[in-house]
Each structure stands twice: as C-alpha cells, then as structure tokens.
Amino acid sequence: MKEKELNICIWIHHAATFLGIICSVCLLIRRKLSKGRICILTLFLESQLWGAFKIISDFKKGCSRLRDSYEKIHTLSKNGRQERRTAAGLCCGSVLFKLSVPWLIGREA
Question: What whole-number distance in Å separates Cα of residue 58 and Cα of residue 52?
C-alpha cells in the first residue's frame, strides 16, 4: 500500500471519528430521545471521545496507532491488492459504524 493511500485511509477514519462526535452531541442537545437512547448514545459518545483523545495524543507524539495496524495488515496480506481491499474494507466499516450509530439512535421510532 502506498503512503498516500495509507494517509487517506487514516484521515478518513479520523474525520469519521470527529463527525460521529458532532452528530452525537447534536442529538444529545436536541433532548427528544428516551432515557435508554440517551444512555446508549452517551456510551457511544464516550468511546468516540476516547478515540479523539488518542488521535490528538498520537498527533502530538508524531506517531500513529493506525499506521501500526496497517503495517500488520501488510504483513498478513499475500499481495498488494488484498492489502488495499482489506484496508479499504476496514476503513469503510469504521466510517459506517461511526456515522450510522448516531443516525440509528436519533431516528424517530
């Protein structure tokens, strides 16, 4: 996997984390949710805030935990195509999770 592709995956993941935080906070401010949904959304928000703190600390240290994870994908992959597909699939799954959870919690039942 090229460095440019790796950086794109990492920044997409980081952007999804911060968008998940923004969506969750907007839903909590709205306060038209049941107590159960507020509890679930709060737990999700806490996990995303923890991820944001890790992103910020990695940025300050100049290292990346995601880069280390992609290095493990590189060692486990048989070829470059499989490596790219695995990385893209994980990146898409991460974005889907981080953005769909607030959407699913906030939809009208």
Answer: 10
Tell me the average confidence (pLDDT) per consecutive run of 10 residues in the chain, 109 residues long: 81 94 92 88 95 91 81 83 86 94 83
Reported pTM: 0.84
Give 25-55 as a DSSP string: HHHHHH--S-HHHHHHHHHHHHHHHHHHHHH
DSSP state of 62: T
Q: Using one digit for the tens of pLDDT, what is the confidence trace for 33-54?
A: 889 999 999 999 999 999 999 9
- Contact criterion met (CB below 8 Å) for 17 and 75: no
Residue 11 exposure: Cα atoms within 13 Å on the Cβ side: 6
